[in-house]
Amino acid sequence: MTVADTVVTARIDGVPHRVLRTEFVDELERTNAITALPRALRNAAAFKKMSGTSWRAMLREGLAMRKEADLKWSQLALAANTPMLLRAGLVEGRLDAGVLSSGQVAGVISDLPSVAELVARIMSEAEQALKHLGDLT
Predict the structure, then answer these.
(1) Rg, Å, the chain Cα set
(2) Weakly modelled stretches of the chain, pLDDT under 70
């Protein structure tokens, strides 16, 4: 992975997000308002079902967001995409239906230890630090 493997897109909800570049993100980039609206409506319905929020509450929140953030109607229509696309990518691991938020730093990470290796490394460093502190007294 390189720093070029991230992209800033406004196709998720109308505001810029830096995400890992995937085929799905490239597909989002190629969409227009007409093709994005059905996806946004499906995601709004899925978010409603997942959260138990009523359509009225979602509309009220959307109108407040529109006023506070000075969003366009098209951005407001896409707002339900964010939680659903992040959930699909980050929680479910579905790169075909979701996004992975990331900074450009992802392209310079070369050390990906397992959890066990990471915990062992942290414990070892902590023990060394405590030993060093003990040597100072």
Answers:
(1) 21
(2) 74, 80, 137
Q: Where are the alpha helices (DSSP H) in the chain?
A: 23-30, 33-51, 55-69, 73-78, 81-86, 115-136
Whether the full predicted model's pTM is greater than 0.70, yes or no, is no
- With a CB cutoff of 8 Å and minimum separation 6, the contacts of 62 are 76, 79
Q: Tell me: the pLDDT tens digits for 91-114?
A: 999 988 889 988 888 878 888 899
- The first and second tokens of residue 68, run together, are 């506070």
**Where do the H-state alpha helices sit in 33-72?**
33-51, 55-69
Question: Looking at the chain, how many residues does it have?
Answer: 137
